[in-house]
Specification:
Oligomer: heterodimer
CATH class of the largest domain in chain A: Mainly Alpha
Strand content of chain A: under 5%
Helix content of chain B: 25-40%
Strand content of chain B: 15-25%
Largest sheet of chain B: 6 strands, mixed
Number of helices of chain A: 7
Number of strands of chain A: 0
Distance between the termini of chain B: 34 Å
Number of strands of chain B: 27
Shape of chain B: globular
Largest sheet of chain A: none
CATH topology of the largest domain in chain A: Monooxygenase
Largest interface: A-B, 47 and 57 residues
Distance between the termini of chain A: 52 Å
Low-confidence stretches of chain B: 1-15, 611-621
Radius of gyration of chain B: 26 Å
Order of helices and strands of chain A: HHHHHHH
Shape of chain A: globular
CATH superfamily of the largest domain in chain A: HscB, C-terminal domain
Mean pLDDT of chain A: 87
Number of helices of chain B: 17
Mean pLDDT of chain B: 85
Low-confidence stretches of chain A: none
Radius of gyration of chain A: 20 Å
Number of domains of chain A: 2
Structural class of chain B: alpha+beta
């Protein structure tokens, strides 16, 4: 028996557009069956199996829940390896990134909480747009290069979201 | 044994007796044991009707005194009386000094880095002291429930790191308890509330105990308790409020801060009494020796404000980590004795914009929730409608990389169980070994993180730098405990470690303690072990037979089935005798030959949840 792909585990067709609520409901349903708590009085072997199955389920859920990770997973399903870090030839986007980062540094220097909130909203809009563009092209072989580029952009913005959260934490001091 | 429970939850071939299991809240100040009785989870009282057992242990030359009387002796016999031992669990001597308070004990080093407390009974590790508290609770439970315990769920602060969890588990083992699960305290409290009120939605649990603070954000959906994020401070609690008042007394009375242990205990007791009085009064007269002064609630509030603020900051972070907004939280639950402080309630209400819930006694709610979970884990409830807890790790786990930096492998708030791998390579030509340093924490510099373990992968075949591919795999189980393995992918060379925290007991120390504690009970031991082996064997036989009946036909071929049946027969024969060792070995053998069968049945349950679709469709894409 092969290891089911993340989508198959949730009985879904591979797709970028996902109903997250449905995914969550399915996840909880599946977790009920394999969580180690159900095997607390079972043999060591069965406990180990439950641990492995649960870990696999959690991994699949985490991957599918996050748009950049889901995008990456979809592209990798074709069998092509996608190194986590590559030199990205996307000058236009890199410039935009640098501008965003500078803006974030300024917000830190001025400890501008309202500014951070606005920044977050803009970031969210940019992410939504990227997600839409990716959804439209990821399964078209002719646009593979574009899809990979969009996926990398999604990763960048995801990292930026993390940095915003760290900034919020610092400003909270 | 769960062979049977996989396929047909709730259907036991022979309904067996209810299995006794308890929930234990091993607290900084107080400890409790609770159990489910006639469908109701309630704390168990001692012979005097007391539910709460103060977490105080006093060592006499020939006996151990635990609870209220030990607590009362704390100032008279400070060196032999250990209070708030939870604050020392899983910590090294250097950490203890950083706790920033004077502890009246004489510490000595042990085989490990753990701080041992010098008593009239010799050096005692925090793990042993905790075990002495747990033993009393275990005896109370066995006396009340009228039988031996199958196991216990022990609660720990959600923010406990790996070392602190491991220390707690060791203490339970030492007390002769079978740990069904280490359960996070806020999650346990959520269960108690969720059950009572059939709650749905987003819930925040604010848990301020004697020595630790936790905040957890959970989503409750149809009996599933999903922790979205957790945060806190494992060195923040009501004890710190006492220390703040004690500091105020020292300053106001112009005392020297360098008090002898007895006087220090006295001072803290005075401070604690003042704190408690201020819950109902606007002011209290504080008397210490021949000095006295009035402490108003307002002044007290000002003293504790920095600590309250620290807790609220952790709340905001947990909310951010959950990816939700403060207003999305439907209910805030108060847990822990320190949430009785009016300023704490007020501040939490302001922060979340709603009145927190306090219906269930904040001292008892954790044990009550733990008992519910213990009952489920012991196998008493297999009707499919049971509750499910999905918890997370509180702190990121990672490895030391070049330049003394921490590389995260599993970020905080990842749902457990989890397994994750990361690949590394060699940086020198012909490098034959690689040091693996496992860390826990959020900071980038390794010196700011907690060092959990170090081990080495040796025997890497000679290659040019960067050619070897070393995969390090982290696995965190449902107790939140970590194990790490490393493997060179080309050659298959492997090394692994069950993370034994740097500040844990060494295996030698545990073995010695276990030996000591069994010394007296040696006679009963043989009989008890045999009985346990017989029970285990019987359960396995029943489970295998039920499984064969349910799925033997479709999952096994004739040969496989015959092998299993032969082993069952063999074990049945041995059960008639008294050779415990043979029974144990044969039980293992039967378990082994049914392993593949169990795995196939486990796969079936996953697929069963997938509403009867054709298996081939699910497997490959």
């Amino acid at each position: 028996m092969g290891i089911p792909c993340h989508f198959a585990l949730f009985e879904l067709q591979p797709s970028f557009r996902l109903d997250l609520e449905q995914l969550g409901a399915r996840y909880r349903e599946l977790a009920r069956g394999v969580h180690p708590d159900r095997f607390a009085d079972a043999s060591e072997r069965e406990q180990r199996l439950a641990l492995e199955q649960s870990a696999r389920l959690n991994e699949a859920y985490q991957t599918l829940k996050s748009p950049p990770q889901r995008a990456r997973y979809l592209l990798a399903m074709g069998g092509r390896e996608l190194p986590l870090e590559v030199t990205v030839h996307d000058p236009e986007f890199l410039l935009q990134q640098m501008a965003l980062r500078e803006e974030l540094e300024d917000l830190q220097d001025s400890a501008d909480l309202a500014g951070v909130a606005t920044f977050k909203r803009r970031l969210k809009t940019a992410q939504d747009e990227l997600n839409e563009s990716f959804a439209a092209c990821w399964d078209d072989a002719a646009q593979r290069e574009q899809a990979e580029r969009l996926m990398r952009r999604m990763q960048f913005l995801d990292k930026l979201t993390y940095e915003v959260r760290q900034l919020e934490e610092r400003l909270d001091d | 044994m769960a062979l049977l429970q996989i396929a047909e939850p709730g259907q036991s071939p022979q309904p067996h007796q209810r299995r006794l299991a308890v929930g234990i809240d091993l607290g900084t100040t107080n400890s409790l044991v609770a159990a489910l009785r006639s469908g109701l989870s309630e704390p168990l009282a001692d012979a005097q009707g007391q539910v709460i057992l103060p977490s105080a242990v006093r060592y006499h030359a020939d006996r151990v005194e635990v609870g209220e009387s030990a607590k009362l002796a704390a100032s008279a016999d400070p060196l032999n009386t250990v209070l708030s031992v939870k604050r020392l669990m899983g910590r090294g001597l250097s950490d203890v000094k950083q706790l920033g308070e004077q502890l009246p004990y004489r510490f000595v080093g042990g085989e490990s880095h753990m701080p041992f407390i010098e008593t009239v009974q010799g050096p005692k590790s925090p793990v042993e002291v905790s075990a002495d508290i747990l033993k009393v609770l275990r005896q109370r439970a066995e006396a009340t429930l009228g039988g031996e315990l199958v196991g216990a769920v022990i609660t720990v602060p959600a923010y406990f790191d790996d070392a602190q969890r491991q220390a707690t588990k060791d203490a339970a083992k030492l007390a002769g308890l079978n740990v069904l699960r280490l359960l996070n305290e806020p999650t346990a409290a959520a269960m108690a509330y969720g059950l009572d009120q059939h709650a749905e939605g987003l819930v925040a649990i604010y848990d301020l105990g004697g020595g630790t603070f936790d905040i957890s954000i959970l989503r409750l959906t149809g009996g599933v308790f999903e922790v979205l994020a957790t945060g806190g401070d494992s060195a923040l609690g009501g004890d710190d409020f006492d220390h703040a008042i004690a500091g105020w007394i020292i300053e106001s009375a112009g005392l020297s801060a360098d008090l002898d242990p007895g006087a220090q205990r006295n001072l803290l007791q005075t401070a604690c009494a003042a704190k408690e009085a201020l819950t109902d009064s606007a002011a209290v007269e504080v008397v210490y020796g021949d000095w006295k002064a009035q402490l108003t609630r307002e002044a007290f509030n000002a003293l504790i404000e920095p600590m309250v603020a620290r807790s609220l900051k952790a709340c905001r972070r947990a909310v951010r980590d959950s990816g939700i907004e403060l207003e999305d939280v439907h209910a805030v639950v108060m847990v822990g004795g320190s949430t009785r402080v009016p300023r704490v309630r007020e501040a939490v209400a302001e922060a979340f914009g709603r009145q927190p819930l306090t219906e269930i006694d904040p001292d008892q709610v954790v044990a009550i929730g733990a008992a519910i979970q213990a009952d489920t884990l012991a196998g008493n409830k297999r009707d499919g409608g049971e509750l499910l807890l999905l918890d997370v790790i509180p702190l990121s786990l990672g490895l030391e990389t070049m330049g003394g930096l921490m590389e995260k492998v599993i970020p905080r708030n990842t749902t457990i169980p989890v397994a994750r791998a990361q690949d590394f390579t060699t940086y020198k030509d012909g490098q034959s070994a690689m040091a693996i340093h496992v860390l826990q924490g959020e900071r980038e510099l390794i010196s700011d993180c907690r060092s959990l373990a170090r081990f080495e992968l040796r025997g890497i075949p000679a290659m040019v730098a960067g050619a070897a591919k070393i995969r390090v795999t982290f696995q965190v189980d449902a107790d939140g405990l970590l194990s790490v393995s490393a493997r060179e992918l080309g050659s298959g060379v492997e090394a692994s470690i069950q993370v034994k925290p740097s500040y844990g007991l060494t295996d030698g120390e545990i073995a010695k303690m276990l030996k000591d504690s069994f010394q007296h009970a040696n006679d009963d031991k043989v009989a008890r072990v045999l009985r346990e082996q017989q029970v285990d064997a019987q359960r396995l036989i029943e489970a295998v037979q039920a499984a064969l009946e349910a799925d033997g036909e479709r999952l096994l071929d004739a040969d496989e089935r015959m092998v299993i049946e032969l082993q069952v027969q063999e074990l049945t024969e041995l059960m008639k005798g008294t050779d415990g060792y043979a029974i144990e070995q044969q039980t293992k053998r039967l378990s082994q030959v049914t392993d593949a069968f169990a795995a196939r049945r486990m796969d079936l349950t996953v697929k069963a949840a997938l509403s009867g679709r054709n298996l081939n469709e699910i497997e490959d894409i």
